Amino acid sequence: MRPHVLPHTDVALPALGVLVSGRGSNLAAILHAVETGELCARVGLVISSRPDAPALEIAMAHSVPTRVIAPKEYASRAEAGAAIVAALRGVGVALVVLAGYKPILDACVIQAYPHRILNIHPSLLPAFAGGMAPRPQTEALAAGVKLSGCTVHFVTEDVDAGPIIAQAAVPVRDDDTVESLSARILAQEHQLFSQAIALVLAGNARVEGRRVIIQR
Ligand code: GRF
Known about the structure:
Blueprint: E1 15-20, H1 25-35, E2 42-48, H2 54-61, E3 66-68, H3 77-90, E4 93-98, H4 107-112, E5 117-121, H5 135-143, E6 147-154, E7 164-171, H6 178-201, E8 205-208, E9 211-214
Parallel strand pairs: 1-2, 1-4, 2-3, 4-5
Antiparallel strand pairs: 5-6, 6-7, 8-9
Helix pairs in contact: 1-6
The chain binds 5-O-phosphono-beta-D-ribofuranosylamine.
């Protein structure tokens, strides 16, 4: 039987550089979308800010090259940022994807990839910006909102404030816990992120000021 060839080495496809810090479920969803052909791209490199991130094991299981760039091992955030840019450029990354990446990116990374870095946030931005999961979900429950969801946006130097590419809403139920609401949002994240990546890679998401105009 021929071994199943994973598409991540196909240099004809645009390369994604995925930055992670933790669990890696969004990374897994992106890898799945690539491998099923839903997303015409390859994952060229996964960079983790932590050596113990489970996301690294997911990348390795899919034969994707990995790097650990832990900010605390660099003299400054700028030096860690320069290492990230060098690693991304080394594999010719077309688009950078933050999939549960915790550190604030240094401005040098954002300037190296203007409107080429995407983040996913577990709230309907601009509500409940800032903070990593489960803070946005906890704040949404505490605020009593009836709808929450997730947002994919371009990364700018203002945290969680870049132009919004796509959003998906979910209901907040009376008996929700942080865990149940987070799970409902996460299921949407796993669909929305790959769709937004595909839109940007295809050149179908044009930034006009704070708005992103989608061509379908
Ligand atoms: C997700 O909730 C995402 O919205 C947020 O961090 C979490 C990452 O989860 N930015 P995972 O590591 O992709 O499972």
